[in-house]
Amino acid sequence: MSNFLIPAAYAQSAGGAGGGSSLMSFLPFVAVFAIMYFLLIRPQQKQQKQLKAELKALRRGDRIVTAGGVVGIVQRAKEDSEEVEVEIAPNVRVMVLRGTISTVLTSTAKPANDTATAKK
């Protein structure tokens, strides 16, 4: 019976070719992580930075979408406040938190110059 187990013991201890093979077996994991970083993580971080900048620069007249899917127009936004007043229907205004705004659809980069259009 003991002769039956001896070849298994030799087979288990015969491995270990050297330190180079462990590095080569670890290399695919590093490559997969690098690919995941450049294809998924990095673009998502850029989108988050862009949304954060857009939320900081919210102005009256910007069209937004909340996390719940409600589309509205910003009526009042203060830079130091987390609340934004949004009109979701004619004469229906609600207060939403900046963190719940998921998309800024249109942004008014410059304030509208109403007096210039009235003169024409």
TrEMBL record:
A Pfam family reported for this protein in Swiss-Prot or TrEMBL: YajC
InterPro entries in the record: Preprotein_translocase_YajC (IPR003849)
GO process annotations (BP): protein transport
Main subcellular location of this protein, as a coarse class: membrane
Membrane protein topology class: Single-pass membrane protein
Keywords: Cell membrane, Membrane, Protein transport, Translocation, Transmembrane, Transmembrane helix, Transport
Protein origin, superkingdom: Bacteria
Localization (cell): Cell membrane
Chain ranges passing through the membrane: 20-40
GO CC, one annotated term: plasma membrane
Protein family: Belongs to the YajC family.
Complex formation: Part of the SecDF-YidC-YajC translocase complex. The SecDF-YidC-YajC translocase forms a supercomplex with SecYEG, called the holo-translocon (HTL).
Known role: The SecYEG-SecDF-YajC-YidC holo-translocon (HTL) protein secretase/insertase is a supercomplex required for protein secretion, insertion of proteins into membranes, and assembly of membrane protein complexes. While the SecYEG complex is essential for assembly of a number of proteins and complexes, the SecDF-YajC-YidC subcomplex facilitates these functions.
Name of this protein: Sec translocon accessory complex subunit YajC
Species of the source: Acetobacter pasteurianus NBRC 3278
GN (gene name): yajC
